[in-house]
Specification:
Layout: E1 2-6, H1 10-25, E2 30-34, H2 38-41, H3 58-66, E3 71-75, E4 87-91, E5 100-103, E6 118-120, H4 124-133, E7 138-140, H5 146-154, E8 160-164, H6 165-171, E9 177-180, E10 195-200, H7 204-210, H8 216-231, E11 240-248, E12 259-268, E13 275-282, H9 285-298, H10 301-309
Parallel strand pairs: 1-2, 1-3, 6-7, 6-8
Antiparallel strand pairs: 3-10, 4-10, 5-8, 5-9, 11-12, 12-13
């Protein structure tokens, strides 16, 4: 029996059940244990004001280390870039839509929102990039699970929300999606749209069971994104966007170099008044991320990140 640890939200349980179904299809028995995390208990607290690093994963990792569960299924954007030596990211399945979306009852696009429209988001990354596009917008803190946020929208507490496409697609709650932003418009969080399956570093049996779920393209892209986030010294609640995709290399290029990756990095001030956006290509994820981080830091990213860190 493979025991899967999961948060109790509707989306987390969808993800855990999806992985359980994949494992059962491979002939394994699987069961799910719900674990309540610090992040679940702090639904009304603004994450930048809390110790955001690992608040959705800490208790799950404690259960993993204690042997109460064998693996944990995470939204990769919530998983800290540095894992304890006790754990390993055993598999990254094929990635879903990584984009952010505009959700609104009334308005069809960002451009159609009236001057001074209210946007619900709990993300500094989204807020900063939105305000860079539309400085007139007013962003307010929106916390809670998907249903809670959609209910607040229906009650008129905001004109629109910005959410991850993957969560709404997985839960089939897409009726109010009005716009899917290209990563060049609103750069996603590192790992957004991907699942990360974590297990104990020494648990070879569970790691072997998970190997058929691994997607090489997703692993390479997300390795670059998470390396960029780490190199910039950021976490899941800093105004950093990172998105990597596989691109076609020149016809003359052979071997590994033909597997080119294109990595986009965005660093912004929380109010959107200053934004750095750079893009690079390389075939090796870590080398690509390090080079892009060096360029962003040379361009002044550290000052923008300091502004975000000092924000109340």
């Amino acid at each position: 029996m493979i025991r899967i640890g999961s948060r109790g939200s509707q989306l987390a349980l969808w993800q855990a059940n999806f992985i359980a179904g994949q494992l059962r299809g491979l002939g394994h028995e699987a069961a799910i244990e719900i674990i309540r995390t610090t992040g679940d208990r702090m639904q009304e607290v603004a994450l930048p004001a809390a110790d955001g690093k690992g608040i959705f994963t800490r208790e799950i990792e404690e259960a993993l280390l204690a042997g109460r569960i064998d693996l944990a299924v995470h939204s990769l954007k919530d998983l800290p870039t540095e894992l304890s030596a006790d754990f390993t990211l055993a598999a990254i399945p094929r990635r879903a839509d990584a984009r952010d979306v505009l959700v609104s009852v009334t308005y069809a696009s960002l451009e159609e929102l009236p001057c001074g429209a209210v946007i619900g988001t709990g993300s500094l990354r989204r807020q900063a990039q939105l305000l860079a596009l539309r400085p007139d917008l007013r962003c307010i803190e929106f916390r809670g699970n998907v249903d809670t946020r959609l209910a607040k929208l229906a009650q008129g507490k905001a004109d629109a929300l910005i959410l991850a496409a993957a969560g709404l697609d997985r839960l089939e709650k897409t009726a109010w999606i009005r716009q899917r932003f290209a990563p060049t418009e609103l750069c996603p969080a590192a790992g957004q749209g991907a699942l990360g399956i974590e297990c104990r570093a020494g648990d070879r049996a569970t790691q072997a069971a998970l190997q058929p779920l691994e997607d090489r393209d997703a692993r390479r892209a997300i390795t670059a994104e998470r390396r960029l986030l780490e190199a910039l010294g950021g976490g899941c609640q800093t105004p950093i966007g990172a998105f990597c995709r596989k691109v076609n290399a020149p016809a003359a290029t052979q071997g590994e170099d033909s597997e080119q990756l294109c990595l986009t990095g965005v660093v912004a001030s929380p109010d959107g008044s200053a934004i750095l956006r750079r893009q690079m290509r390389d075939s090796e994820p870590a080398r690509l991320a390090d080079a892009l981080a060096a360029q962003l830091l040379a361009d002044g990213a550290a000052a923008l990140l300091s502004a975000g860190a000092s924000r109340p």
